[in-house]
Amino acid sequence: MKLTDLSIKRPVTTFMVLCIILLFGFIAFFKLNIDLLPSFDLPMLMVMTHYTGASPSEVEDLITEPLEGVLATTNQVSSIDSISSEGTSMMMLSFAEGTDMDFAALDVREKVDLIKPLLPNGVVSPIIMKLNPNMMPIGHYSITLNARSLSETTDFVTSTLVPTLKRIPGVANIQVTGGVNRALRLVADIDRLSTYGLSLNQLNQLIRSEYRTLPGGVIEESNSKLNIHVQSSALTKEDLKHLVVSNQDGRPITLDELVEFEEVYAETSSYANVNGEPSILFSIQKESTANTVTVSEEVEKVLKQLQVDNPGLSVDVLFNQGVIINQSIKAIGSNALIGALLAVVILFCFLKDFRTTLIMAVSIPISVITTFVFIYFFHLTLNMISLGGIALGVGMLVDNAIVVIENIHRLKQQGLSPAEAAYKGTTEVAQAVTVSTLTTISVFLPVVFVQGISAQIFKELAFTVTFSLVASLGVSFTIVPLLASRLLSVESLEKKHLILNSLRHKYKQVLIWGLHTKKKVTVLVLLVLIMGGFALQGVGFTFFPSADQGIVYVTVNLPKGKTDTAVRLVCDEVLQRIKGIEDIETISLTMDKSSSRADIMLVLDPLQTRKLTDKDVTKAIMETTKNIPGAKISASTGGSLMSSGNNGITINILGEELEELEVLGDAIQGLSKSITGVMEVAFKESRSAPSVAIQVNQSEASQYGLSSAQVANAIQNAMRPISVMTLEDEEGPIEVELYSQTALGSGLTEIQNLTLSSLKGSRVPLSAVATYQREVGYHQIERSNQTHLLSLDVIIEGRTIGQVSKDLENVFEQLNIPEGYHVVLGGRVAQMKDSFSMLFMALGIAVLLVYMIMAAQFESFIQPLFIMMIVPIAFAGGILALFIGNVPVSMPALIGFIVLSGIVVNNGIVLLDFINKLRKEGKGVEEAIIEAGMTRVQPILMTTFTTVLGLLPMTLGIGQGAEIQLPLALTVTGGLLLSTVLTLVVIPVIYDQFVQ
Question: What residues pair up with 824 in beta bridges, in sequence order?
C-alpha cells in the first residue's frame, strides 16, 4: 500500500500530518455544541383559533370542523387531531417524515385563508405555529428580595429581571408565574350609574379619554412641517377622584361620587408557592437553534451579576437542564475514558510488553480525536448518543491494530527487516482488516431507510461509530506500521504467559471434544437459543429508557368548575403529605387561577446522597395521595425528552357519538383495573363541566328595545373587570380596574338581580327578559382525523409497556364494540411500534449486508452461513444480559442488536479465513481447525475483552444519565461474550460437519 509505504519512509511528514489532525480535533472539540440528546424535528404544526364566549360544541361546529375539512387536503399531512374547548380551537397537524415544514406552514396558511371568510364574525384570525422540542423550558427559578414585599419583588421581576434576561443571546421567552400587582379598583353600582345615564363602558371611555395623546394636526413653520399632538398631564389617584364624568342640574359629578376607590394587592392570573411560601417563579425558553448549555451558562452569569447589583436578591435554581446535560456528558465521557484505560490494561495483561501495548493503544486517542473533526464538519453535537457511539467503539479501535501487529511480528520472525516487515505485514492483512471494518460499519447503512425519531437518534450513533472505526483503520495503515518498524522487537510477542498457555491448552481439549461430539454442541446451542426466547418473554418492551434527573412532576386535577380556593385547599393537603417523603430538596407549586389544575415540581437531593430513585419517589407520592377525595393526582419522573411523563399507556376510543364513547370508556376502565401492573385507569380530561345557560326571551326583550347581544354585553360588563389604565406613583405602577358590584359578588344571585338599561331609559330586571338553567356540558371535545376521540390514561408499575399493552388488547377483544367505533393504543405504545418496526427492518437489512460482504470476501455463498450461525446466539446472549440486568428491550437495546450483528462476525471471519489458508497448504480438516483455533484464540480473546471492558462502565450504569446507554451496553456485552465463547467451538464444528 502506498499509504503505508509513505508513512514508514517519511516519518516526519506522517507525524506532522498527525499533528494537524490532532490540532483540528482539539479545536473542533471545544467548538462542538453540547446537548442531552440529538436535535430532532417534529413534523407537526399547530393551528390555534380563538372565539371568545363560544361553548366547546359551538367551537367544534363553527370552527374546528370547517378547518379540518380544508386542512385535510394539505400535502403530506398524515393526521389531524383537535381539541375544541371554551373559546378555543386547537388543531395538531402531523406530516410525513421528511416534509419541509416551512413549505407545509405556507400551504396550511393558504388553506386557512380560504376558509377564513366562512368563519363567524368575532373569530380571531387562526395562529399557525411549528412545534419544536426546544419549546420546553431549559430552566426553572424562584426569586425573593429580602426585606421587600411580594409586590415590590413582582415589580422588580417585570421591570428589571425579565428585560435583562431577554437580552441574552439565545433566550426566546421568559414566563413568570405568581406574584402580586398593585391595583386600584373602581367599584361602581350599575343602578347608580344608570341614574346619570352612564354605563360601565361609557365610564371607562370617559376616564381613558383624559389619559390619551391625540393628534392635533400639522402646521408649517420656516419651511418645515410640525406635527401637533395634544396630551393631558399625568394622572394621579387624586386626579381620578376629582375627574368630572357627568352633570346633574348644572352641578359637576366627580368620579368619586359614583365609584368606591379600593387600593389592593391582587394576585396575578397565576399562583406560585415554593416550600410552602408564596413566591415568584420564572422559566426560560431558548431559541430553537440555540445551544442549551451555552444559554444556561449565560443565564447563570447574568443572574449572579443581578444578585451582586441588587443586595438582598436571592435566586434559587429549581431546575437547570444545562447542569444536567453537563453532568450526563461528563459521566459518559469519563466512562469512555475509563473504558479506554481498561482496554489498554487488558492488552498489557495479554502482551506483557509495554512497547507493543503502546503501539496498539495509540489507536484509541488518535481515532477519538479524529472523530471530533468529523462530528464538527457534519454539524452534529456532543450528546448522550454520539458520545455513546464513541464509548461503544473505544474498545474496538484497537482491533485492527492487533491484527496488523501480529502479522508484522510473524514476518519479523521470518527474518525480514523492521521496515520490510512493517510494510509487508500491513499490506498482507489490509484487505482482511478493511473487510472486517466494513462488516461493522455496514450495519449502520440501513439507517438510510429508517424514519421517525428512531432514525434521528440512530444516525448520530451510526455516524460516530463509523467515524471512529474509519479513523482507526487509517491509524492501523499508517501510525501502527510506522511505530512497529521502530519499536517492535521479535521478543515483544514471545514472552511466556502461563495463564494464556493454560487457557490455550484447555481450549484445545474443548475444541477436540466438540469436533467429536457434534450432537452435544448442537443441543447446547439449542438450549442457549431457547433460554434466550424465554428471557425475551420476561424482559418485555418499552419505548425509551428513563434517566434519573432528580425531578418529579405531580399534577393535581379537580373537576372542572372548581374555584382556585378549592384547588389550593386540595394542594395544601397534597403538599403536606408529600413533605413526609424523604430525599426531596425543593417543592414548588404553580397554578393557573382560570383552571382547576395545579402543577407541582419536586427537586430531589443529589443522586449521590439520596436513597430513593425518582421512580421510588413517584410511587410513594401515588401511594400517599391516593385517597384524597375529588382529586385526580398523577406523578411522573422528569426522565428525558423522549421518556418524560408518567409510566403509562394512552387508550384512544374513536367514534361519532360522544355518549357511546363514554359507555365504551367506562367499560374499558372497569375491565383494565384488574390487569396486573395497572395502578390507575382514568379519563384523560374531565368529561363534563358545570355551566349556566341564560336563555333570552326575544319577544319580551324586544318590548324594552333590547337585543340578545345587548343582554350578553350587559352581563359580561357586570361580571368581568375592565382594565382602564396604568398609573405611576412614588411606589411604582398601579393598575386601574373598573368593577361592578356584581363582579365582586359571590354567585348566581348577583346575576339574577342584575338590571339592564333599555333604549327607552328604563331599568329592566334580567329576570324579566331571560331565564336561566344549570347545565352539565363537555369541558372539551377531542377529535382525531375528523371523528370524535375519548382518551384514557393507564398508569402502570412493575411491568413494561409492552407487557401491559398485550393484556389491554385482550381486554378490547372482550368488548362489544359497535360498528364504526375503534379502540386503539396510542401515545408511547404507537411510537414504540412505529420505531421498533423501523429498527427491526434495519436489523434485517444489516444482517443481509454483513452476509453479502463476507460472501464477497470468501468468494462463497456457503461459508458465510457458517459465521452467520453465530448471530442468533449473540442475540440470545444480549437478551439474557438484559434479563439478568432486569432491563427491558428499548430503542437503545435494538440499536445494540444491530451493532452486535456487525461485531460478532469479525471473530468468525478471522477464524474461518485462517482455516481456509491452512487447508490450502495441504493440511487436513481437523488439523487445520485445531491449529487455526490455537493460533487465533489470543487475538479473538483480545479483541473481545477490549470491547467488553471498554463498555464496562456503561454496562455497570455508572454516572448521571447512564440509564439511557445501559440497554445498548448490556446487549453488546452479553451478545459478544456468549458469541465469542461459542464461536471458538460452534463455527469449527459447523465447518467440519459441512466438509464431511
Answer: 652
